[in-house]
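Escalated from tier 1: magnesium ion holo job.
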Amino acid sequence: MTKETIIGIDLGTTNSCAAYVDGYKDGNPNVRLIPYKGGDYTIPSIFAVDDKGNELIGYEAKRQWQLNARNTIYGAKRLVGRTATSDIVETMKRVVQYGVKPSADNKEVLIEVAKREMSLQEVSARILNKIRDVASNHLRTPIHKAVVTVPAYFSDRQRQSVKEAGKLVGLEVVRIINEPTSAALAYGVGKHLNQKVCIFDLGGGTFDVSVIEIRDQVFEVKATGGDIFLGGIDFDNAMIHYVLREFQTKTGIDLSTDPVAMQRIKDLAERTKMDLSSREEAPFNIPFITMTPQGQPLNIEMKFSRKLLEQLTGELIERTLKILQKVLHDSGLSTHDIDEVMLVGGQTRMPIVQDKLTKYFGKPPSKGVHPDEAVAIGAALYAFSLQDDTNLKLQLLDVIPMAIGLEKADGNLHIVFPRNAPIPNAKQIIGTTSADNQAELIMRIWQGDHEVADKNEQLGEFTFSGIRQGPSGAVRVEITFDVNVEGILTMRAQDPDTKNELTTTVRVTQS
Ligand SMILES: Nc1ncnc2c1ncn2[C@@H]1O[C@H](COP(=O)(O)OP(=O)(O)OP(=O)(O)O)[C@@H](O)[C@H]1O
Ligand SMILES: [Mg+2]
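Tier 2 regenerated the structure:
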């Protein structure tokens, strides 16, 4: 075998899944999911360190979670590549049992596990490595390359972070693609379609919507949007907070500071939430959750109805619908133009989500893709199209999810690429010096849709040095912004008069 298999990986917030293409079947690529122990096709995206210092990943980590909540890391994906703004760190602290803190330079979020500090990138790297090991064993050949999916709404830095995570464990992430785009590939490859589809992806941690036009092998994203802090975990949290409130009203005891109790509540909340997708009511009982000051054991004995769950999470569902409306508006299409609505992500199994979409589009969502597997299948197809031995030629025309721009003197954002600008994409701007013999030019670049620059995410402070000497305003600098097919920005600068390249250095810090 001379060719090297490139696998597709859906690195999910709660579950990850991998797939590959095993030749052709009836003229189409034959996609296979990679099974884990026990035959499951998904693996929990959980990392833990046990009391002996062993690292556990996937099911092993999930199994011991209740007893070792402080050293069990889940939801890493939401924080990877995020600047440690106090907002994010505080939000996370409220909802996770492990330690979260900003790094000394505020550049990233660190977690504390087994008295060690780790970056989220390292945690993601461990999970990628595990998936790669399972795939290598299954395929009986070492795997070195993968296409990895990310939420469409991931920023440049978050994308870079996932690539870096692969590098840490010697896995080359040959291409990052967007999860909804990947799901569209799973749906459309080999079908010779001419359709406009809407992908509604509500997973464990993130929410994405994309409107995509499929013309046979061409997949053109018209608009995308989302929220990387909106997913099943938030539905669980709405239930958990309700349970805590009720318990406190009844007993005066606040369970939120007891990690073991919290973990037990969290487990049952998620299971009950899933049950309520197929039944109207479910009991919510946890024996011996705590003790009274007098040493009397206390239980949680409650009941949840589907209605109550819908009330507690109504605001979250409204947020998804608002984003959907905005994306459809950005795409320039109306609900009638959409041929199929595709549901992706486990949380779309909630009946009210499907009802709301049916109402909005005037027709029920399609059953054309598997909500848990579509993203990995699409990634495998795309990976196959990049392999040497392939006839599959796919064209992905994607967009950036948020504007990219530079900070002006007044602190506002000068937009270089608007939201939904197609990628790959390059733009040039010309700057001039503002002092005599100015040797360098510093530019702060941000990504986001807020008009005030520092209300967005900083992509970096770029310094262009080696500028030719000359009086103020007389020397020009031509700066090129390049966003590649993966939505990752690089910048370079040259003197347009001498054509000399300037030296570019980048520093990432949040002011
Ligand atoms: N039957 C169900 N009803 C309601 N929610 C469900 C059901 N099955 C799974 N979920 C929820 O779906 C979420 C997991 O979905 P999924 O595996 O698609 O997420 P992910 O790919 O890991 O996350 P993301 O795509 O956000 O990174 C969990 O929050 C889970 O509780
Ligand atoms: Mg997902």
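Residues 219 and 396 are 5 Å apart (CA to CA).
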